[in-house]
Amino acid sequence: MKVIEPHIHMIARTTQDYERMARMHTVACCEPAFWAGYDRTSARAFHDYFTHITKFEPTRAAQYQIQHYAWICINPKEADDLALAREVIAFIPEFLDKPTVLGIGEIGLNRNTKNEMTVFQEQVELALARNELIWIHTPHLKDKLRGTRMMIDYLKGRGGVDPERVCFDHAEEHTLGMIRDAGFWAAMTIYPITKNSPGRVVDALEIWGIDRMLVDASGDWGPSDPGTLHDAIFEMRRRGHPEARIETVFYNNPCYFLGQCPKFKPAPLLPREQAWSGAARTRDSA
Amino acid sequence: MPKGDTPPVLPSPLSARELLDMHFLDMRSALLETAAAWDRIERAAGADQVAADPRLANLRAALEIIARGRGDRAARILTALSDPPL
Q: Taking CA atoms, which of A90, A120, A169, B73 is between 20 and 30 Å from A25?
């Protein structure tokens, strides 16, 4: 079974992780632009970072037959400095034109501040003006509920945003309902302690169904592991879900969402109406 | 804050605040895993048949021990989940 990792920060991972991912049948991975673990000191540092994830990482991944894609933005954790953010936003279009860049992301909120919201809105406008896909980071821990609501309300209130082209990441039990009710894609991150476990992710798939749902490991420089994505695959198998349903969650669904960008090459194995029909809530013997 | 019933022979080198900072996310995560697994059982076929399972009653008792705000919680939970002495 082929697997797509929709969210991982390979800049923070070793080459051995690419090798492990390849051995676990990962055929493509996506790297949203994010915080480096420290605040960058200038816009040029972002330019260097964007160059790295659009040039070096695709080359490194290709050695293991993995297609590497990227999302470009100024991340929410460094968005409170409006002047710096706007300096970065000015050269984002240069990178959106790169052959492996899928859209704007991961934009969003961190502490739900006014400046973060301003930068979020300005990057949404850039995405809409260029008809780009949008990948959204929802805040951590106690800030997640409010921040997710703020961004959904903004996008619905603005109008003109096709929810099919927007994915809210790091969803958990208390935010999945509002994301799905608004028609957006939801991604659940398996990340030790602060986000979801494999068991809770599979719970959510059982409760809500597999349509418009993605799962990622969001591996970075923190205590995380690309293998947790595959732990969730095993958890689905352990609970008796059929292989076709598992394959849809971990391969077809990323193709349905990411494939809206013509640069994304992997193709789904069947039409999404067929993959999602009857599979949402029922247990079958396939 | 109530003290644990058993006074420590070796007091923690870290303060209560430092320990809370260190452990809060792990404690939060463990509670979430328990809540999610409990929901999972109640959603599954045959949930009514296990509603009175003594293991679930034991877990309820354990949660009360956690929430009661007294020390020696781990020992009290393990004792509550143990067969009584002969």
A: A169
Nearest residue to A214 via CA among A159, A160, A253: A253
Q: Quick check: A225 contacting B, CB < 8 Å?
A: no
> Does residue B58 lie in a domain region?
yes
Each residue's pLDDT tens digit, A111-160: 999 999 999 999 999 999 999 999 999 999 999 999 999 999 999 999 99
Q: Is the pLDDT assigned to residue B85 strictly greater than 80? A: no
Report pLDDT digits (tens) over A166-220: 999 999 999 999 999 999 999 999 998 889 999 999 999 999 999 999 999 999 9
Kindly list the residues from chain B whose CB atom is less than 8 angstroms away from the CB atom of residue A189: none
Q: In terms of residue numbers, what domain contains B82?
A: 53-86
Instruction: Give chain B's domain count.
Output: 1
Query: A82 near A44, Cβ under 8 Å?
Result: no
Considering only CB atoms, A193 lies closest to which of B26, B37, B43, namely: B26
Instruction: Flag whether residue A197 sits within 8 Å of chain B, measured between CB atoms.
Output: yes
Chain B nearest CA to A190, separation (Å): 12
Q: Which of A193, A194, A203 sits opposite B40 (nearest CB)?
A: A203
Which residues of chain A make contact with B29, given a CB cutoff of 8 A? 192-194, 197
Within-domain flag for B34: no
SS3 A190: strand
> What secondary structure letter does DSSP report for A211?
T
Percent of chain A scoring above 90 in pLDDT: 95
In a domain, B59, yes or no: yes
For A82, the token pair is 């409006």
ipTM: 0.75
Structural domains in chain A plus CATH codes: 3-276 (3.20.20.140)
Question: Which tokens go with A70?
Answer: 């990227």
